[in-house]
Write a structure and sequence with these properties.
The protein is an alpha/beta fold. Helices cover 41% and strands 15% of the residues. The chain contains 18 helices and twelve strands. The strands form two sheets. It has a six-stranded parallel beta sheet with strand order 2-1-3-4-5-6, sandwiched between helices. Strands 9-8-7-10-11-12 form a six-stranded parallel beta sheet, sandwiched between helices. Helix 5 (98-106) links the parallel strand 3 and strand 4.
Amino acid sequence: MNKQKRLLLLPQTGPQGAASRYRVYQYVGFIEKAGYLVKVWPAVDDRIYRLRAHRPGAFSKMLWLLSRIVRRKLAFFFVWRYDVVLLQRETLPIGFPIIDLMLCALAKKVVFDFDDAIYSAAQEMPTWQRWLSDPARIERILRRCDLVVAANRQLAAYARRHAMKVVVIPTALDFAHYQQFKAVKQWNGKIIIGWIGSPFTAFYLKFLFPVFANIARTHAIEVRAIGANISENVDFPLVCKPWLLESEMDEIHAFDIGVMPLTDDEWSRGKSGLKLLQYLAAGIAAVASPVGVNRELIRPEQNGILASTPEEWEHSLLRLIEYPALRQRIAVNARDSFDHSFDLQTTAGQLIQAIDSLCK
C-alpha cells in the first residue's frame, strides 16, 4: 500500500489576505482530493492581519513582522516530516533570508510561490530600509527551491534566471461560482464606480480622485471602495466598506463600472490582475491601466477599456456613464470573453501536477 503523500503549506497570511486566499487556501480541497495529507501553517493569522489592515501603526507592524518570524521559525521543528513544502513568498521584505534558506535546507522538497515583483520591493523602500535589505535575497531563495510557481510571465522570466524549474500558474478564481451567482441590482439614481482591494493597495485608487471629482460635478456617481479605509475628505461621493468574504460577490455585482488603476512601474507590472478578473467574471464593464497582465485580459472597446492618463480615465469613464448601451455591451462581452486559463478548475490541475512532479 502506497504511503499517503504529505504537503505542508506555508502561506503568508490567513485566508483574510487576498494573496494567500487565492494562491493557497482555495486549492486545499483540490489537493486533498488528489490524495495528499495537507497541513496549513500561515505566517500571520487573520487576527493580526485585520489589526494591521485596519489599525496601521508601529505596534501592528511590529506584531505583523514578529509573527512572520516566529511562526516561520516554528516550522523548522516539523517541516522535515512532509514530502513537499509550499512556501508562499519570503518571510521578511528586508535582510538576509536566513529563515527561508533554513526552511529550504530542512525540507525534502520546496515549492516557492510568488505573485508580486517582490524582487523589486527594495527600490520603493526608504533609504534606511535599503541599507538593511539584501538585494539578492529573492535570488538566494529561488536557487534553493526545487520548483518555483510564478503568477505571470514577467515574474517567471525573472525566476528562470535563478531557478532550475519554473512554471506559470496564474492567480485564478472560480468562474462557475460567478456564473451561478444571481445578482440583484438596486438602482439608487447613481452610477456606481467600484474598486475592490485592501488598505495596503488603496493608494492606487487615489490616483483617480481628481478624475472622480471632475465627473461628480456634472454626473450622479458614487465611488465604492471595498476593502479600503480612506479617511481623507474628497470632492465626490465616496463610500468605503470593509471587505467580507460573505458579501464580496454582492459588492462586486453592485458595481456599474469597475476600475483598476495602477502605476507603470516594475512592482505593478508584476501584478496578477485579480480585480480585473473579478470584474470580467462578474460581467462588469471595467476600465484599467494598461500595465502588466491587464494588457492580456482586456481587448480594448470589446470587453473593457484601457486608460493611462487622467484625461484618458475621465474620457473612458464618461463614455461608460453617458452611454448605457456601450456599458451593457462591454459588460456582456466581459463575461463571455473570460479566459479559462484563469479559472480555478484549470489552475488546480496545474498545481497538483507540479507538486506531483516532485514526489516521483
